[in-house]
Amino acid sequence: MNLDGLYSELTLEMKAKLVLVVLDGLGDLATREQGYLTPLEAASTPNLDALAQDAAQGRMIPVAPGITPGSGPGHLGLFGYDPLEFQVGRGVIEALGLGLTLKAGDVAARANFCTLDAKGIVTDRRAGRIETSVCEELCALLSKKVKKVGDAEVIIKAGKGHRFVVIFRGKGLEGPLSDADPHRDGAPIPKVEAVDKKSAKANKAAKLVAEFYKAALPVLAKKRPANGFLMRGIAHQPAIPSFVERYRLRPACIAVYPMYKGLAQLVGMAKLEGPQTIAEQFERYLTEYDNYDYFFIHYKYTDMHGEDGNFEAKKRAIEEFDAALPILLQKRPDVLAITGDHSTPCALRGHSWHPQPVLLTSECSGSDKLERFTETGANLGSLGLFEAKYLVRQMQANAKMFDKFGA
Amino acid sequence: MNLDGLYSELTLEMKAKLVLVVLDGLGDLATREQGYLTPLEAASTPNLDALAQDAAQGRMIPVAPGITPGSGPGHLGLFGYDPLEFQVGRGVIEALGLGLTLKAGDVAARANFCTLDAKGIVTDRRAGRIETSVCEELCALLSKKVKKVGDAEVIIKAGKGHRFVVIFRGKGLEGPLSDADPHRDGAPIPKVEAVDKKSAKANKAAKLVAEFYKAALPVLAKKRPANGFLMRGIAHQPAIPSFVERYRLRPACIAVYPMYKGLAQLVGMAKLEGPQTIAEQFERYLTEYDNYDYFFIHYKYTDMHGEDGNFEAKKRAIEEFDAALPILLQKRPDVLAITGDHSTPCALRGHSWHPQPVLLTSECSGSDKLERFTETGANLGSLGLFEAKYLVRQMQANAKMFDKFGA
């Protein structure tokens, strides 16, 4: 029997409050340089420590052993969707990150400006890393000149530096398509093709991309250095079973950065806009407490400082988070899970595959008798090492949402 | 390659003694109320402690993360049968629990008396929770009046209160069928149908159930309050590969309660009847030592007291078990595993999904250097957190029953 099917069959109709707090990129490594302490271990966290007393801990594999996830797979896993089964194209992720709202069937591409020579050969894949303001101007120009290709609407939005996003909104489209990117200088832009040649919808999308190039390249012809563009990760927004259907919980997202709101929206979470600080996010949780059953609260700064390799700043970000935690606890949910979507070790200055620590507290979590919430302590916890996609199931179980299996 | 196929291929023909001791519902939670000790941690267990010195420990997921198993899936997992692959209907489990011996192809239903109004609407799904003695009288009456339907023999046995079991023993029958139970008051008894409409055998079984209702309801027509009955979990005894075939071990069960004997019988274990106390069960093991290779010894009271939320009684049950353990150890088997079929935390007063601790000792178990056998200690053990269905494979490996895989 299919396991998701079993979970669904056993799910009881009931009222419960579940809260998932994600400190992005929380997990880290203990290294000699930092006295063998991780930022979480070095930080002063009296409020997390108090929670640890009555909590279970463990570590979670974001996707599979050794696999470093981007934010997309990292969060889909946390939301209980197998990141290998539910793959979201980079174009879609990028669009979500820019705050665009996608519709079912939209095909999105991650694009960037490049430099082409007279023969159409790519001479600089990043067009000399143009300024964001230049990118914005060029995108505005393209938007004005190319509003439609075939029967599809074209939506263009500038990102940072040379990066932008193109969305094709039409009928009967799907991805994935091959990249319009030679992935090296010195070659022409390859023609885009449907990955599944038998898909009429993907063939149609590939044709639209070709038409887009035909219309857009002349617009840029006289620009320097950005007289061309590359497109990658071209795919449609996949059909993902909605969170409320799958878990019988009304979900809401309290995030600051567009990417995470977008990922939450992808599974049907309500986006609660406004809060900018973690304290404000927790305040918002308090005011919305009665309106939802499941809250996803996202804290970005642990990841950001990890990416910069800034140990002290990551440690301070954790301390700021800890200081705000009592606000959340004014309305203690039935189940509270605190974790990361992956590790972002300062020593590696980027996402990694190292299992992130997780703390879970509820009336039936029991106590692992750990005095703090740390990577090293989590290794000893009763939750063990498990795939992140099971976290939501553990949370549901802790909310007593599952009927017994078999007699 | 199929993993079960690999295990089977690597299994060597040899003599070894393996003992699985199940303290039903052993696993528990450390909570503030009990000074952060589980019953196993609070109990005085000198004999288990002595075993721990030369044992490996770990924790087992009974079925899947967050899933709370009934006794059926719990034990099938311990016997090495994936509880998701080998599902046993509630009717069959109930029949086994009442000590009935099922034959292959028997279709069993969990039934209970109910009250119907003049129009056949269910007004009380439990017939006012009649006494067991009334249930026994009504079952005797039904047994006398309805011995056969179609070409199938009907076997009826009373359970506790308003509960009973009906078995249809005929040719070419199978389940599962839909329930003859509206699952609420105020509705009529629904007609039973085959879950798989294309199964001729299930359609035949559904027809027999309808005929049974036709014959049985008039017998009860004048009885009050039990003038009707509902049937649920109607299914046949599934075909399960026998234990001896699968593991090349001659298995025997030393249990007191019918349910566990029934589950053991389902996989072809010999039932060694007679013993009532754990000391007697261990004595019986000593006398039968030469006759079997694998002994399943079941101790019920840990679960029973966990269900009652009686921490002290569960603790004492563990101490009684521990006191009897030296009897078993008079003939130390090659491999001894001590565990539960699931957790039954006192704080939850019922089965739960929390991984149960397991202790495994053999000449090649090594030592995890743990001084006791406890939930918290088991978190640190070398067996880690694993699915219960692999326990028998760990036991076989510890008996050196597996050849090397590959060169």
Q: Can you tell me the CATH topology of the largest domain in chain A?
A: Alkaline Phosphatase, subunit A
CATH class of the largest domain in chain A: Alpha Beta
| CATH homologous superfamily (4th level) name of the largest domain in chain A | Alkaline Phosphatase, subunit A
* Structural category of chain A: alpha/beta
SSE ordering of chain A: HEHHEHHEEHEEEHEHEHEHEHHEEHEH
Beta percentage of chain A is 15-25%
Number of helices of chain A: 14
Number of domains of chain A: 2
Report helical residue fraction of chain A. 25-40%
Spatially, the strands of the biggest sheet of chain A line up as: 10-9-11-1-12-13-2-14
C-alpha end-to-end distance of chain A: 17 Å
Report the sheet with the most strands of chain A, covering strand number, pairing sense and barrel closure. Answer: 8 strands, mixed
Biggest interface: A-B, 31 and 43 residues
**What value does the Rg of chain A take, in angstroms?**
23 Å
Question: How confident is the prediction overall: mean pLDDT of chain A?
Answer: 96
Low-confidence stretches of chain A: none
Number of strands of chain A: 14
Dominant shape of chain A: globular
